[in-house]
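Let's do one together. I've listed all components of the complex below, 227 residues spread over two lines.
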Amino acid sequence: EVQLVESGGGLVQPGGSLRLSCAASGFTFSSYWMHWVRQAPGKGLVWVSRINSDGSSTSYADSVKGRFTISRDNAKNTLYLQMNSLRAEDTAVYYCASATVTTYAFDIWGQGTMVTVSS
Amino acid sequence: SYVLTQPPSVSVAPGQTARITCGGNNIGSKSVHWYQQKPGQAPVLVVYDDSDRPSGIPERFSGSNSGNTATLTISRVEAGDEADYYCQVWDSSSDHYVFGTGTKVTVL
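Okay, and this is what the predicted structure of the assembly comes out as:
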């Protein structure tokens, strides 16, 4: 079964850090670009970051650039998102997603992990 | 940055056709993808590259894209189609991925 499972979410104070993980199974993880997408409570989807298949190229939304770092370990079939200098507006469900059917669409999604930034 | 605009809501009776628009500057020159999201669930890709369907998505879901508007059409609407729908493109000028504002489809 094709699956993405996120973990690492939780409650963190403003200015704090958190590292999200996304474990992939059921497909050739190392062949595909991967993304993080977030959704604040009651709001729409917002793309956060992407990484290419071998990890040599990354891209970030302006709102997180310089604070978040995306990475992957193809040997462990795992995607990561290191989040530093967290702000209240970073509060959201964070989804990892893969682009397997076409490079620029997200066809496999995890169930999401909630990140709450609050004092 | 590139902006995609969708109507906040669309209402449709069962068995009828729902059309959800996604407006963007010269969006016809981009590949548009559509997602369905039900409450408490992750999004599901229903149309990619303007009009292709992933395996398992019913033929009732179709897409088109021209000029400044892309459209997702849901034919013979069922109660189970009630959800939020988002369009999405890749903006090559910024290497960013952009989602539309989202449309809530209500089945009357």
